[in-house]
Amino acid sequence: MQRQESGVTQPRPPTVAEARARDKARKRAEEAQQAAAAAAEHKKRTRKRVLIGGVAIVGVAGLVGGGYLAYKALTKPDEVTAYCTVIDQNGQEIVTPDDQCETASNAVGSGAGGAHLLSNGIFIYNGSQYRYYYGGNNTVGKPPTGGTTVQPKGAQITTKSGSTVTRGGLGTSSKSGGGGS
Asked: With a threshold of 0.70, does the pTM exceed it?
């Protein structure tokens, strides 16, 4: 065995096997580094494509949803409130509680109490003339304003109490808050 002195002793040259092993290790390290870079690039491209696809799906879903809402808004029947009115002794029309028109229309339907229907949408019960007033924002005991006596075509018509107006505006159904028959 020989002694080596630091700074004086020269390292021996590598053997052929050691040189080959170092070269192989260097090549493997470079290949691993290139594979890692390629994998990172692939992952980056895939993530970008997924994000673009997600944005496209959200855009299409938003477009379909917006189209559906627009269609529903266009095809939805108008909602109109019907107010029961009576013509008083002075000939003035006054808004009355909904149950008075319901009672009068039921009497017209059954022929009770001398009730009968006039051709202009007015029905008479116990000597009083009743009809529905469509639309506006009316108060019981005051004259109707902001609406019409003509029943709107294709509208969902309900009274303030929630009954659905049927029979051409004369009478109500017993259904509350639903569609008419």
From this structure: no
